[in-house]
Amino acid sequence: MDQIVSYRANPPAPSTGEGSSSGAGSGALTVHDAASALPASLPHNPAAVKTAADYLRALRRRIWLVLVVAMPLAIGASTWSLRLPRIYQAKAEITIEPPEYNSALSTLVARDLGQHNAASQEKYVPNHIVLLQSKTLAQKVVDSPAIASELTAYEDPAQELIISGLQVRRVSTSSTYIVTLDAKDPALAKKLLETLLAEFKALAKEENREGVEETRDYANQRLKSLKDELTSQEKAIYNQLKAMPTLGSGGRNVFEEKYVNFGNSLVQKQMRINEFQQQMMMTRSFGRPDFSSGGGAREQRIAQLQADQKKLVRALRKVKRIAGNFDSDPAARDLAQRLDENMNELDELNGPKTKMARDPYEMLLDKVQREYDDDKALEQQLLAQMQESMPEHQKFLSMVEDRNQTRLKIAKMEGDITSFNTVATAMEHKELVKAPLSIIEPTVPIKPSRGLYIAMGLCASFGLGIGLVVLLEHVDHSVKVPEHVTYGLTLPLLGVIPRIRRTASTHRGGHLWTPGEPDSIEADAFRNIRASLLGVADRRGPILSLLVTSPKAGDGKSTAALNLAATCARAGERTLLLDVDLRRPTLADVFPPEPEKEGTLYGLVDVLQGTLPWQKTLRHTELRNLDFIPTGNPRDIPIEILGTLELRQLLTALANHYDRVILDGPAVLGMADCRMLGRMVNASLLVVRAGAHQLVTLQRAKGMLEQSHVAIAGVVVNGLTEDVQNWSSYGYDGASAGIAVRKLPPLRPRGNLTANSPDDSLVLAGSMNT
């Protein structure tokens, strides 16, 4: 604590200055270093840091809220669970297999030549699963005459019974599926599922049949169109043949054939020309033989050569008749070469005057060259004719090629149709959807699981109640633990007062006032407060005048002041209880006035006004050593009267007359009354109600007292409800060991005490004597 508190045995006399600090009685509490008026700042608010223990205490404190929230919800959830209808599930296992076609027929089924049907095959099963769960199939089931009469109670039976209760689950990666249908009636569930699967099988079979027939019709139409196309192509080719004179057998171009033949002939003649030219060069290079040496031999040789010449000529004629191509025939070439040699030799033997003296190769060369030149001119004519007729001929060839392709298509289509008819016959009789004819009627309902629902409802209900309590505790930052109060205010804890219980022995006139239960833990709590005050006095000097205050009204300061005064009186101290709360006086009705004594109807305000001395307003209570001075009638009395010199002098006189003067003062926050009163007493006691304020509120109240140099002896936590058992050795029902208690008759109060709060109950602590 920033302030330094010290006690002196001989206090100075009270002065008239309003700002001076004075005490009453034999000791005074002096406060130094008033510059630090506010408490030391804390690293965090201890009340805002919630632990698991805080939430557990909150649950114990507000278990009633948990029950209030959870019980109706739990009852509602249980009732709802018990009223749920029983649901039965019919189950069947089906198999869906797509139709299988070989690759040769896939184009027919797909209706797109050149494309495979794998995509449609993969979509077959998913599409039929969607069909099984569709509204169309469900409507066919409910429209069936066999069960239509049983569904009249439903507004939309297809949606309510089939679609909402139908589930299809695949078995691993196979083509088998588990189909389940839920319904309230087991017989109806069985009948609906059987009808649904029968309609599904029939629909799949009809769809397959229609697909086969549609594919067959498409293939036949396609074949017919191909045949019609072939007929028109052949007719066009026939007309073209009649219109084009240049067409030969097999659709060949006449000019093209002539041009090719002439080209071959020209090549052969060019080869002959080359051969003749080579022979002429060889003859000129080697020369001719000379036969002039002998006349007889020369004539004989001429005769023999002439005979050979005739033979060679006959042989050449024979070869020409036999050979297909005379010019390129090897035998003809050999005979011609031998004939040329024979003629050359005759020319040499006969001399230049003979007719055969000229080179025969030159003669043949001239002849072949003339023929070659004539054929070359003819070839150019054929080329021009061929080029002129080529566009029409090319058009004719295209028509022929188209006709041939159409014939191939027709042959392929006829083969595909034959194969498809064979496969389609088997496919029409194949069951693509296999389902059982009969389904076992369910006997045990699958839901509701009432036990589980009730357990879940209980858990959710109590969880909601507990969550609400935890939420309230989380947002509640009020100080409930005494350690938090002392830690946050840096003040000593003088005592803890539990919440005072209302019992038959303490109830009186709407108040709680007990001279008959001094053995309660409430009485022990005030004894602990007095013991703490004695400890403070031992260390720092006696506390004769004590102001009991609180941060706000309703913290129980009047109860604390009353019971603390009764405890001090029971301990043998001459005690005076003074009610100085001019705004809300509450203690006057506890100690009724004495009608036979003059002045007991008056109080403190009358003394301060000088109307009568304080002894005239004194009320002697039924408790030995306890006197009481009420406030009096505070109407039209200014609050500033609490800061006058008369009050200081009164307190000094009372401190000299009594061992303990306890002032029931007003609250601190928002009012200056307590700050003025605190400067006139030895010490003040700050009463804080547990769970009523946040720590910042208490810090503000303490700061205001310290700013006015009010000495704070300590803090008392009132109305504690949590962890009470750890502040008492015996608990609520335990009796103080070794203490004999004498019950007192009830007092006779008059009027009605206005409590500061519902828990501001009055308990007189200690064993009180009449």
Would you kindly provide a written description of the structure presented here, covering whatever features stand out?
- The protein is α/β, with parallel strands linked by helices.
- It has 4 domains: 296 residues, 3-Layer(aba) Sandwich (Rossmann fold), CATH 3.40.50.300; 46 residues; 136 residues, FepE-like (Bacterial polysaccharide co-polymerase-like), CATH 3.30.1890; 157 residues, no CATH class.
- 50% of the residues lie in helices and 11% in strands.
- It has 20 helices and 16 strands.
- The strands form 4 sheets. Strands 7-16-15-10-14-11-13-12 form an 8-stranded mixed sheet, sandwiched between helices. Strands 4-5-3-6 form a 4-stranded antiparallel sheet. A two-stranded antiparallel ribbon has the order 1-2.
- A hairpin with a 2-residue loop joins strand 8 and strand 9.
- Helix 5 crosses helix 7.
- The two termini are 43 Å apart.
Q: How would you characterize the largest beta sheet?
A: 8 strands, mixed
CATH superfamily of the largest domain, called what? P-loop containing nucleotide triphosphate hydrolases
Strand residue percentage: 5-15%
Give the overall shape, derived from the CA principal axes: elongated
CATH architectural category of the largest domain: 3-Layer(aba) Sandwich
Number of strands: 16
Q: In total, how many domains does the architecture comprise?
A: 4
Assembly context of the chains: single chain
The number of helical elements comes to: 20
Strand order of the largest sheet: 7-16-15-10-14-11-13-12
Structural class: alpha/beta
Average pLDDT figure: 75
